[in-house]
Amino acid sequence: MDQEIQNQSQIEIENENENENESQQMSQIQRQDPESNLNSNLNLNKNDSTLQSNTNPAKNNTNNNQTQQNKQKRRTRNDNNDRNYYCGCGKSYLSYPALYTHLKQKHEGKPPEGTVLPQNIQKQAAVKGNKSDLIENINSYEAKFINPYDANILDEFLQFLDTINPSFRKDKVLDQYDNTDPIYVTLKKIWLENYNFDIFKNEEISNIIQWKTLYQHILEQLDEYIDQENKKNSEEKKDSQTNQETEKDIIKEETKKQEPSETQTQIKNEQQEQKNQAALNKLQELKEEPVNKIISKYLIELSKILSQAGMIEMIFFFCLVRKNLNEQGYLAIGEEHNFDMQSSMLKSQISESNVTNQQNQNKPEFCSQNQGDNIVIICNDFLIELLPNQLRQELADEQVYSFQIIGFQEKKITNAIFCFHYFADWLFINKYTNTKLIFKIDADKNELQQEQQSKQLNKQNQSMTDLQSSQINEKSNYMQQKEESESQLQQE
Fold first, then answer.
1. In this structure, is residue 101 part of a structural domain?
2. Which pLDDT does position 241 carry in this prediction?
3. What does the pLDDT read at residue 51?
4. 334-335-339 Cα angle (round to 5)
5. Nearest CA among 208, 205, 204, 226 for reference residue 216
6. Same domain as 163, residue 140
7. Which InterPro entries match (predicted)?
8. What percent of the chain clears pLDDT 90, i.e. is strictly above it?
9. Are 139 and 163 contained in the same domain?
10. What average pLDDT does range 46-61 have in this prediction?
């Protein structure tokens, strides 16, 4: 027994000596490099945790099971499940940022045909934990792609229109409306009185009727939007009144009871949580709004700053955008739904043309069912191929359509592309879409300017060389004539 006690004491002394040596080494390291000290502390903490886990085998087993379960839940690059973000080139990704970087690197930021973009940003974020962090992440992620000028995108649009004709700017910006009449009802009255397609004054042309029906559909969409906004305003007023009353009651109770500060912090946290939830709900609503309503809202904003002539052209243009979305949208996103197609019809021997016609008839309107993310999917085909041809067809008779902004001429087609450019920026800034479109118009303009400058320089250089060569030729001719005259004199 005495020997065992001596052995244990020796072991303890040795351990103490080792600990002293380690502490001396640690103090030396701390003097030399504080960063390495931090890393060594981290390593020591890890070793201590492993020692503690070895001393508790039951806890160790449960921790191992939890880590294995977490590893099983964790997604990897090779995971074939939940790859819901598809590029038109055939690649699929687990998240929208991964798809975005792929589009930026491989396709210059332009989603190819067949690209499936997320319907809303809520799908990417499994909303657990702090909602304020989620809102900050969303805002910081979207702020990366917002330029400083984008905050006043409509002012930029006005400045662009000023380069065409300053008369497109409204004399007085309609920031405020009659308080007794809701803003959107007043706006609808203005539209019905002023922005009517009867201004074209030619009832014999058939396509005028077509544009009237498209315009009428937007007004019908405005009716629904007006009702919803009025309901929201009334509900918000009620909620604000109830919130004010509850806050007053809480303050009274706190002053009476003189409760500690913990309750106040709890109340503040609850209020902040409600604000965060309201912000998330607003984001969700924006991402789920249909195309018809989004176009109506944009036209509402334009009507506050544009004159009647400018507004007519914008309504015409966005009716054209909406028409192409309804015709090409489902093909662009690759959704071949067989709406209301019964199995009996499929089994029967019907030609393929009849089946496709039946499908197109039974499909709901694209702009009533799809959201802002799907507006930009046809932009390449629309701006490069469809728009020039359709403008050439619709605006062939310039006596009827005396448009100055858009048209089938090359310059006016470029103006139309700019109009869509500002609309796409407005969509992104107002969080209707997660996709930031990058147009190459500015780059192309710079290249054209550089080419023109280089051509001018070449012309100047060429003119200088021509001048020099002409001077040399004149001098040589003069010398030849002089020599000839001298030779003739000598002969005489």
1. yes
2. 63
3. 39
4. 155
5. 208
6. no
7. Znf_C2H2_type
8. 0
9. no
10. 44
110, 144, 178 — which closes off a domain? Answer: 144
Give the count of beta carbons closer than 10 Å to the beta carbon of residue 12.
Answer: 10
In this prediction, residues 386-403 reach a mean pLDDT of: 70
How far apart, in whole angstroms, are the C-alpha atoms of residue 22 and residue 40? Answer: 11
For residues 166 and 138, state if they share a domain.
no
Kindly state the percentage of the chain with pLDDT values over 70. Answer: 34
Q: How many folded domains does the chain comprise?
A: 2
Question: Which stretch, 179-188, 224-233, 420-429, 459-468, has highest mean pLDDT?
Answer: 420-429
Q: Is the pTM of this model over 0.70?
A: no
Per-residue CA distances from 3 to 6, 13, 16 (Å): 5, 15, 20
* Amino acid, single-letter form, for residue 117: L
Domain span at residue 175 reads 159-231+289-341+350-450
Q: Is residue 133 part of a domain?
A: yes
**How far is residue 432's CA from residue 416's CA, in Å, rounded to a whole number?**
21
In this structure, of 10-14, 265-269, 481-485, the range with the lowest mean pLDDT score is 10-14
Q: Are residues 305 and 366 in the same domain?
A: yes
Same domain, 355 and 319: yes
Is 190 exposed, middle or buried, given 0-12, 13-18 or 19+ CB atoms closer than 10 A? Answer: middle
The pair of structure tokens assigned to 426 is 């407005």
Residue 354 lies in a domain: yes
Residues 112 and 138 in one domain: yes
